[in-house]
Structure formats: structure tokens, C-alpha cells
């Protein structure tokens, strides 16, 4: 079994309101965070310091994603806009908009050169990454969708909605392949590794599912309250989870054994309110939430 040693290397302060979203670029040690503040912040992870306000925004930001192999950052906003920002040139490249409602999830579909976003109205919007023209618009759910997860292999994509349903779609023509009720409450987090799909919800449950048909493999109750993030490590056979219960947990991917529990109750200088977002940046786990703080954790892994 993998062993874990975790220590806090930096606490980044400056946000005036809860943080909802983050994205990191390990190649240049940059981190981007956003939430209820009227700006997207860039941090220098090498020095553990504030770098700049990347851009001002007119409303809360619920989703951030760096498009791989580019200098472009996607942001999903409460006002229904999706922004594409060039972080090197520090300029807004394009502003896209949905018909109504907040955007809760946005991501790039790099294999197709497309951007997809979804949110409050349960309708997915797909734009060209080259021209930013709207290519497709289709209803996924009759209610809010907060999570999108493309598969690493194959051309499929999963959505998770407020009623606890998962929807598996084909990326070629955006045809629905499967629909399955998984959670008793809203789906709040999705993740994949090479073999399985993981789904977390407001019911404090985490489900490991077969990717091809969304059938159950295993289930776990990782936290006391909502699971806001499931983060497979990019190299090691572990995954982290974060929650509204203010804790970070790291699990063995194959056995689902708990390897580390990080919280104030366990003696760590952890978060004092809900942890809403997290990302791996190499062997650093970065977390942020309602306490307006960004915490950078050094994670060392070995074998007993």
C-alpha cells in the first residue's frame, strides 16, 4: 500500500470572498483562482505569492479550465457567459453566452477543437475553439447540471445533474448513450482514471462506475457532507477528495483505503469552512474554499 506524508507549504491570502474554482499550470508554476470576487487571480506557486489580477469579471466565476497545450483559460460565469482568456497576453480573446442561467461547468474537448459548457438550464452549448462559433446546443437535463467529465480514452463525455442522474454522451454526434440515476441528491463532482468513472454528490457518497454503461463497481462514504472534488493523482495510484465538511482525504485507488485525513480536527492547519475546489500541480495538492484561503500542500508518496 502507498504511504502518504503531507505538509502545508503555503497559505495564499487575498481573496475577499469564497473561492469556487481553480486551474493550475505545473509547467510554469502558475495557479488561477476565482469565485465571488470580481476578478480572476493568478498566483506564483514557485514563490508562494500573489502575482496579479488576471482580469476583472462582472459576476461570480464557477468554473475554470486551462486548455492543454495553449495559453488559453476558460471561465464559466454566473451571468451565463463563458470567457476565453489568453493568460500570456493577459487579454480577453472571446466572450460567449448561453441563453439563460449560470454556467457551472466548462471544459475543452481538445480532440475535436471544441469548448463545451453547461449549467443552470441543463442545456449544453458547444463552440468551435478556432472560430468561437456556436456549433451545437442540446438539452441534457430538465434541471441544473454542475459537472462535466470527458473520458481520457474514447469519445465519450458524462454530465451529472441536480436530481442525481448521470448522462453518458458520444462526442462525435452528441448522442445520449446512457442515463442512470446514481445519487439520491445532486451530482457535485466527476472524475475519471484509465478504467473507471467516479461520481460524488451532495449525499456525501462517492461511486466508482464502469465507464461504458455507468453500472456500479464500488461505493464509498468519504465525507460527512457534499463531495466537491475527486482528484486522481496524475501518476500515483491514489486519489484525493474534498468536501463541505472542511476535510481533505487521500485514498488508495485500488483498495479505496483511507491513507490520509487532513483537517483541523487532525492537527493540520486546514480549512475552516467548506472546501470547494482543488487541483493537483505535480505532487502539490492545492485546495480553496469558503474561508477565502488557498492552501498548497506538499504530498510525498512511498511504500511502507
Helix content, binned percent: under 10%
Principal-axis shape: globular
Mean pLDDT: 96
Q: Give the N-to-C terminal Cα separation.
A: 7 Å
Strand content: over 45%
**Rg, nearest Å:** 18 Å
Instruction: Examine the secondary-structure arrangement and name the CATH architecture.
Output: 7 Propeller
**And the CATH topology?**
Methylamine Dehydrogenase, Chain H
Helical segment count: 0
What profile does the largest beta sheet have? 4 strands, antiparallel
Per DSSP E runs of 2 or more residues, the count of β-strands stands at 28
> Could you name the ranges where pLDDT drops below 50 across 5 or more consecutive residues?
none
Task: Assign the structural class, choosing from mainly alpha, mainly beta, alpha/beta, alpha+beta, or little secondary structure.
Answer: mainly beta
Number of domains: 1
Quick recap:
With 304 residues, the protein is an all-beta fold.
SSE layout:
Elements: E1 3-12, E2 19-25, E3 30-35, E4 39-44, E5 49-56, E6 61-66, E7 72-77, E8 81-86, E9 91-97, E10 103-109, E11 114-119, E12 123-128, E13 134-139, E14 145-150, E15 156-161, E16 165-170, E17 176-181, E18 187-192, E19 196-201, E20 206-210, E21 216-220, E22 227-232, E23 238-243, E24 248-252, E25 258-262, E26 275-281, E27 284-289, E28 294-302
Antiparallel strand pairs: 1-28, 2-3, 3-4, 4-5, 6-7, 7-8, 8-9, 10-11, 11-12, 12-13, 14-15, 15-16, 16-17, 18-19, 19-20, 20-21, 22-23, 23-24, 24-25, 26-27, 27-28
Pfam families: WD40
InterPro entries: WD40/YVTN_repeat-like_dom_sf, WD40_PAC1, WD40_repeat_CS, WD40_repeat_dom_sf, WD40_rpt
Protein name: WD40 repeat domain-containing protein
Amino acid at each position: 500500500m502507498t504511504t502518504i506524508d503531507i505538509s502545508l507549504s503555503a497559505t495564499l491570502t487575498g481573496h475577499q470572498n469564497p473561492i469556487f474554482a481553480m486551474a493550475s499550470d505545473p509547467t510554469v508554476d502558475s495557479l488561477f483562482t476565482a469565485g465571488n470576487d470580481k476578478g480572476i487571480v493568478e498566483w506564483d506557486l514557485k514563490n508562494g505569492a500573489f502575482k496579479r489580477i488576471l482580469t476583472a469579471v462582472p459576476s461570480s466565476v464557477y468554473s475554470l479550465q486551462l486548455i492543454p497545450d495553449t495559453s488559453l483559460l476558460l471561465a464559466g460565469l454566473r451571468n451565463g457567459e463563458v470567457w476565453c482568456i489568453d493568460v500570456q497576453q493577459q487579454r480577453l480573446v472571446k466572450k460567449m453566452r448561453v441563453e439563460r442561467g449560470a454556467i457551472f461547468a466548462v471544459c475543452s474537448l481538445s480532440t475535436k477543437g471544441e469548448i463545451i459548457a453547461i449549467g443552470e438550464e441543463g442545456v449544453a452549448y458547444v463552440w468551435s475553439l478556432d472560430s468561437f462559433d456556436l456549433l451545437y446546443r442540446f438539452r441534457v437535463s430538465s434541471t441544473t447540471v454542475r459537472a462535466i467529465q470527458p473520458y481520457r480514452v474514447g469519445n465519450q463525455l458524462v454530465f451529472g445533474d441536480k436530481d442525481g442522474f448521470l448522462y453518458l454522451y458520444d462526442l462525435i454526434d452528441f448522442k445520449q448513450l446512457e442515463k442512470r440515476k446514481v445519487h439520491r441528491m445532486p451530482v457535485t463532482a466527476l472524475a475519471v482514471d484509465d478504467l473507471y468513472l467516479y461520481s460524488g454528490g451532495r449525499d456525501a457518497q462517492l461511486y466508482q462506475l464502469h465507464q461504458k454503461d455507468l453500472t456500479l463497481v464500488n461505493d464509498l462514504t468519504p465525507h460527512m457532507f457534499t463531495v466537491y472534488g475527486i482528484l486522481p493523482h496524475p501518476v500515483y495510484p491514489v486519489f484525493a477528495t474534498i468536501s463541505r465538511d472542511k476535510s481533505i482525504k487521500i485514498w488508495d485507488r485500488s483498495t479505496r483505503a483511507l491513507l490520509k485525513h487532513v483537517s483541523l480536527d487532525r492537527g493540520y492547519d486546514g480549512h475552516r469552512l467548506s472546501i470547494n475546489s482543488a487541483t493537483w500541480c505535480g505532487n502539490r495538492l492545492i485546495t480553496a474554499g469558503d474561508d477565502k484561503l488557498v492552501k498548497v500542500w506538499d504530498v510525498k508518496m512511498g511504500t511502507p
